[in-house]
């Protein structure tokens, strides 16, 4: 699953934090792995909670939080949730042109050991949101450089802030295979018209796509969650 959780703030209720709604949305789909974006840890706006930890605890999952920035007395970034043990957790900073004054972005990765002993690398990322795609282009190229040195099968998920056909997603498609081609839209939650949240993998020969869908959950966040079932081939 890929899910931008909007720091657990339902857009229809400004200032309110509803972790239970996010937890319920994820739990209903029962995913093995989740890439979360816009996660708060001990911030003024969200309270004395590590949101990744709290959600993982309720779902009985392992977790790893990757800080992108300091924010509101705490931290803000992306996270990984997993039913299976995580190791080799790491945060990689992604490039931003200083002149753009773009918010620092990262990719968080971890090695996941599956019940049959097979291992994969799983990554959660959230690319730059500015209208100009300069930073996103730099960031996706950096992610590809990271992935190119990876010996394990690699699953990447997140909010790319770019739709299919854009320069950024065309670049993504040169190194990864997305779980959708005619991708259902993920924003806005009411009458969605643009797909910017994706799940992708490499190498193509190691995976088989079984299903891809966008979940119509319009309360919990300003993004719709994306879930795909992919088979890891031995």
From TrEMBL:
* Top-rank taxon: Bacteria
Q: Does the keyword Ligase apply?
A: no
Q: Which residues form a coiled coil?
A: none
Gene3D superfamilies cross-referenced by the UniProt entry: Endonuclease/exonuclease/phosphatase
The Endonuclease/exonuclease/phosphatase domain extends over: 1-223
UniProt keyword annotations, A-Z: Endonuclease, Hydrolase, Nuclease
- Provide the GO biological process annotations: GPI anchor biosynthetic process
Q: Which GO terms describe its molecular function?
A: endonuclease activity
- Give TM segment ranges: none
Which Pfam family, giving just one, matches this sequence?
A: Exo_endo_phos
One GO cellular component this record assigns the protein to is: membrane
- State what protein this is by name: Endonuclease
